[in-house]
Amino acid sequence: MLDGWKKASIGEIGRVVTGTTPATATPEYYGGKIPFVAPGDLGKAVFVYDAERTLTDKGLLQAKALPPGSVLFTCIGATIGKSAIAGRELATNQQINAVICDPRKADSAFVYYLLDMRAVAIKRLAGAQAVPIVNKSTFEDVTAPFPPLPEQRKIAEILRTWDEAIEKLEALRKANLQRRIWMRSHLFTGRTRLPGYRGEWREVTLGEVLTEHGLQGTGAEEVFSVSVHKGLINQIEHLGRSFAAAETGHYNRVLPGDIVYTKSPTGDFPLGIIKQSKISQQVIVSPLYGVFTPATQALGVILDALFESPIAVRNYLHPLVQKGAKNTIAITNRRFLEGKLHLPMEPAEQAAIAEVVEVSQAELTAIEAEIEALTRQKRGLMQKLLTGEWRVTPEGSGA
To answer: Any bridge partners for residue 252, and if so which?
Structure first.
């Protein structure tokens, strides 16, 4: 054991409290000002201050009040391992265990990072059950090395610096996504016009602005799939292996800038996904996909940005699609082109709108890359600092 570090269990450094749910049939328990935290409220930031549901003072008497600084950790179900620190007095449901740290033995923020680092290992303690559960006694027995309190606080302070940077980037990402929602409801509909443009907007069928070129594979193209978040992506990179037929000459060829429609339900897109190819070379996709060339590259950019919204895709496709008994989607490529949208007709205005979209996308991509880099750095720091591989010197220690 490292000098000054001691091995201890969670039960030894604090008191573990399992949450409880007041009777849901008693309305007077709910709708107050006290957060009633569930797993869905955790994992968004280090500190949790609010929750989707709230309790009244009477409801809190039926639950277990937790003081600020309690470390919350989900111990039941698929969300095992989600954690946060209570930023104020609150209560939790029975899926969450809370650690109320003994201030003489452990720093709450240090325990939060320790549990976060060990979340995967703790999840394994649930075993192979239909509903995985890490019960209170098992959770209390989780052991780890603890440095002296001043070193715990210094380690937590360092890691908190990384989290603050990530939270600021997450706020920028959220603002970017909010602007994209505004663009879909204003800029892509003509409700708000870019300065200097007065050209015609018309309600047109997609068949007037998209063309099915019908090109097929030559044998030289790579096989791609379509992802909700990544758009067109190499099938092996996306799925881990190729699901293509041995002979791909009948696969649909996708040119750079083409619009691709997948006719299969996926998550929030039960009627399929519509994406523009941002691949610089020609690729091929399953013959089940529809492939169309937009009248202008810019128009393809606008359609891609519009259809990143599940609501926009549903609104467009719902009148066109027939769903089979086995949830299959019945729609021909010709039928896909019969839906109508209100679109700008002037190529210059299309290009200007597309430029706004591409700047927004470039900003989002840069933010997400920075979040990923900082998150990776933080995980590395946690491994080094929380195991004592890297030691820190607290201020005022004289070392």
So the answer is: 216, 285
Give me 139's structure tokens: 């959770």
What's the CA gap between 107 and 13, in Å, rounded? 9
Q: What is the pTM of this model?
A: 0.84
Tens of pLDDT, residue by residue over 243-257, are 555 677 789 999 999
| Residue ranges, CATH 1.10.287, the chain | 149-199+346-399
Say which DSSP state 291 is in: E
Contact 15, 99 (CB under 8 A): yes
Query: Tell me: domain 149-199+346-399, CATH 1.20.120, correct?
Result: no
Of 123, 118, 112, 131, the residue nearest 43 (C-alpha): 112
b/e burial code for range 255-268 (CB count within 10 A of at least 16 → b): ebbbbbbbbbeeee
Q: What is the pLDDT of residues 89-106, one digit of tens each?
A: 999 999 999 999 999 999
Give the architecture-level CATH label for domain 6-146: Alpha-Beta Complex (3.90)
Q: 203-339, what's its fold?
A: Adenine-n6-DNA-methyltransferase TaqI; Chain A, domain 2 (3.90.220)
* Cα within 13 Å of Cα(165), Cβ side: 16
Using CA atoms, how far apart are residues 300 and 63, in angstroms rounded to an integer?
A: 54
